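Query structure, 153 tokens:
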């Protein structure tokens, strides 16, 4: 019994560390150019209200989104319905609006503060999604990859 609790705590610690966004390292590498600082604040401070989806899927965006998933998302999210640290991504674009997904990627803190569905997911997963510091275009590429993963053409 004690061993399974220790194993579970170790797994949670490793998962939490693996999904961390490296805030301490970035704090040491913070931009000194004020224009660069303002540009970063604009990306992460504003709510996404409308998204134009491509039809058919933009293959370059799908490829870029997969690369971003592999580096920043795959350690916590599976492409099927399996919950790892965070929920699985299967059919997420069928359950959620594109704007909701974009805001969850770009504005995690705002979503967890204001959105009841995001709050419910936090209660289920027990781990707060770290901010991955993606640009809006990177988040849009991840959304396009999610659409591809859900079978859209």
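Result returned for the query:
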């Amino acid at each position: 019994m004690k061993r399974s609790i220790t194993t579970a705590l170790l797994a949670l610690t490793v998962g939490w560390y693996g999904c961390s966004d490296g805030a301490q390292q970035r704090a040491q590498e913070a931009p000194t150019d004020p224009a660069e600082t303002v540009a970063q604040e604009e990306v992460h401070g504003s709510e996404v209200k409308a998204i134009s989806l491509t039809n058919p899927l933009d293959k370059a965006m799908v490829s870029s989104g997969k690369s971003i998933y592999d580096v920043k998302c795959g350690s916590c999210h599976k492409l099927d319905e399996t919950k790892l640290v965070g929920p699985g991504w299967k059919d997420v674009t069928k359950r959620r609006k594109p704007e909701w997904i974009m805001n969850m990627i770009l504005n995690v803190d705002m979503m967890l503060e204001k959105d009841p569905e995001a709050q419910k997911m936090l209660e289920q997963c027990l781990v707060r999604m770290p901010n991955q510091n993606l640009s809006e275009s990177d988040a849009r590429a991840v959304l396009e990859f999610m659409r591809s993963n859900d079978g859209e053409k």
